[in-house]
Amino acid sequence: MPTPLRISPATPADIPELVTLVNSAYRGEASQQGWTTEAHLLGGQRTDADNLRDLLAPENATILLARTTNGSLVGCVYLQHLPDALYLGMLSVAPDKQALGIGKQLMQAGENWARQLGLPLVRMTVISVRHELLAWYERHGYQRTGATVPFPTDPRFGLPRQPLELLVLEKAI
Predict the structure, then answer these.
(1) From CA 160, how far away is CA 87, in angstroms rounded?
(2) What are 115-162's pLDDT values in tens digits?
(3) What local confidence, expressed as pLDDT, does residue 132 receive?
(4) Is 170 helix (H, G, I), strand (E, B) or coil?
(5) pLDDT tens for each residue of 18-43
(6) Using CA atoms, how far apart are residues 118 and 112, in angstroms rounded to an integer?
(7) What is the pTM of this model?
(8) What is the average pLDDT across 10-22?
(9) According to the CATH classification, is domain 6-124 in 3.40.630.30?
(10) Taking a C-beta distance cutoff of 8 angstroms, is the pair 144, 161 a contact?
(11) Whole-angstrom distance, CA of residue 25 vs CA of residue 55
C-alpha cells in the first residue's frame, strides 16, 4: 500500500528543507542508504538555495513537495512547462523512505500536471550510467529518445568522477 502523501507546490519558505532533502537523496553518506545515490559518480552537492530559488522563479516552473500526514517532507519533483512537453527533473525521495512508492506518486503527480496543462509529453534526462534508474523509468512507460545532452559542468553542483552524459527519455500521456 502506498504511503499516504500530501502533494503541493513549494514556496520560497520551503527552500532550506528542500536543499537538505535533495542533497541527501543524491549525494553524500546519507544518500547511500537509498538506491538513487549518485555519490559514486559525482562529488559535492546536488543543489543549493540559490539554485532552487532560480528553479522556482519562472512562472512556467514549480517544485511539487510530498509530505507525510504529519508534515514531514519526504520527496519532491521539479516540473517545467516547455513549449511541447513538461520537463520532469530532480525527482528526490528521502533515502530512508525509498521503495515505498513515494517516487512513483510524485512521477504520477507530474504526469497529471502535464495533462492539466494540455501537454502531450513528459520529458526528462537521466545520467546514462544510471542503469537501475533508467530501468525504473522504462518500467513506468518512459522511452529513450536516442537524444543525449552533455552533463552540466558547473562545479557548484557536483564534480564528475568519470565522463557523464544525460539520456533524454519521454512518455506520451
Answers:
(1) 23
(2) 999 999 999 999 999 999 999 999 999 999 999 999 987 877 788 889
(3) 92
(4) strand
(5) 999 999 998 867 666 766 677 788 88
(6) 10
(7) 0.94
(8) 97
(9) yes
(10) no
(11) 18
The CB density around residue 66, as the number of other CB atoms within 10 Å, is 25
| Residue 14 grid cell | 520551503
| pLDDT tens readout for residues 160-170 | 889 999 999 99
**16: which 3 cell numbers?**
532550506
- Going by C-beta distance under 8 Å and a sequence separation of 6 or more, which residues neighbour residue 50? none
| 38 within 8 A of 46, measured Cβ to Cβ | yes
- Domain range summary for the chain, segments of one domain joined by +: 6-124
DSSP string, 86-150: EEEEEEEE-GGGTTSSHHHHHHHHHHHHHHHHT-SEEEEEEETT-HHHHHHHHHTT-EEEEEEEE
CA atoms within 13 A on the CB side of 71: 2
Average pLDDT in the 75-93 region? 97
In this structure, what is the dihedral angle of CA atoms 13, 14, 17, 22, given to the nearest 10 degrees? -140
Question: Grid coordinates in use for 148?
Answer: 543525449
d(CA 97, CA 66): 11
Return the SS3 of 42: strand
Give me 146's grid cell.
536516442
